[in-house]
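Researcher: Next sequence.
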Amino acid sequence: MTIHSTKRLAASAPGTGTVLRAGGAPLDAAVAEAAADWFTRLHGGTATAAEQKRWRQWHDAHADHARAWQHLQSITGALPGLNVGGLGYRTLHGAPVSTSASASASRRRLLSLFMGVGTAAGASWVVTRTPQWQQLAADYRSGTGERQRHTLPDGTELLLGTRSAVVMNFSGDERRVRLLQGEALFTTGHPVGELGSLPFVVETAEGRVRALGTRFTVRQNAGMTQVAVFEGAVEIHPVDAVPGSRPLRLDAGQTVRFERAHVHEPVAASERELAWSRGQLWVDNQRLDDFLVELGRYRNGWLRVDPAVAGVRFSGVFPLGAEGSKANTDAVLAMLPNSLPVQVRWRSPWWVMVEAAVPTSGR
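Model: Next structure:
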């Protein structure tokens, strides 16, 4: 979970896109997200004294911050069984806090309320399903430029790419993982006992991917899911497929994109689909502007390209860094002028422009 600086949050309130109303008065989206961010962190039982101090500074920095926090407290106090108000009180006063499954369930109920339209204590929150909210709702998440590895309860190995988030639901019928955003590499486990008899399914906005004993990647794009299989096979069920239609079987060495009602023709998978899991960006005759869009997923801020060089095509392999560390995108940008007719201008650490190189005058 990203913890915003006090300075940044104070500057963002109010006025940059209202999504919430508390007691009839609007609150800014950034304030709502920050309040929920602090709320879930302080209720997690791991907040340090320094983090509690930063929370207090954020809370006191603007009246809207205090109002958002108060509204959160009213919601949690009004929902039967949620009981996170007392949890937060114990955390803020230094008492030990349980990290039990009941606390996790309470957090999930709170975030589910935020992500829809709910009414509690006479006030309603209306929020959009932004990447920030999806990150808050996730069981496993990765930040910008990060890769995070986890082992699921059934032994499945999960590797998350940059800005990725998943929610788990291992029920009596199936082992289900929902990819909220980003990309993930799954190496399915073979558990003994009850879990071993349950199908393993990955859900996206466009449909379901059922594993048949596999190693595969799933990426959630805007309106599109991409799947690549490297071991075993999967079955793909678009969410709006014609009733009674058979799922598409995708075998090892194949990749495919699908929408809610349509599956494209499978093609051969390449190293490009798996390169991100090794901390690499593979470029094969790609336009510079498309490459920078992909690179932008690994860094914060603005990354723009001069239209004069946007269509330049090139190939190469660019290292992003080791697993568990932030991607070094500045180093990748610094490589571009070595082989392309471009220059990179850093107007600030968060505002970078790739422009046409200035011709050098002859002697």
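Model: The first helix runs from residue 6 to 12. The CA atoms of residues 257 and 263 lie 6 Å apart.
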